[in-house]
Amino acid sequence: MPRRVAALLGPAPVARAWPPAFTAVGLAVWGAAAGATVSALSSANAAVTLFFALKAATPL
Predict the structure, then answer these.
(1) C-alpha torsion 23→26→32→38, nearest 10
(2) What is the chain's mean pLDDT, rounded?
């Protein structure tokens, strides 16, 4: 039986959602995820601060 056919008929490989944390790839993935989280929180903080600054400065 050819290898391609055997690979299709065999069990599916185990899928991993995240690589192991203490490898070069794992550290890169976790670092990117942490950076994206910090960036999103910083943007949200800036938006809330701007909203309150504009609300306080607008005489309505």
Answers:
(1) -100
(2) 91
